[in-house]
Amino acid sequence: MKKAEYYESALRDSKKELGRQTHVVNGLKNMHKQLESEGYQPLDPLDSVITEWETRRSYIKGAIKRLEELVK
Fold first, then answer.
1. Which residue range is the domain that position 19 belongs to?
2. Closest by alpha carbon to 60, among 4, 6, 12, 1?
């Protein structure tokens, strides 16, 4: 496999993973909002999980930017 093909493949995979991560974060945020609307106090562990997933997303976004530069 050539370098360009490798980078393009990694870029595609990274974009798919970003989509999955986004789906998880949005689901967690919706769960948080639903709990609040039902009168429950927000859970600190849930907040920290959301933060952790958002951090993962930011790492993936950074990797995508670097891969896009390599593919050019």
1. 3-71
2. 12
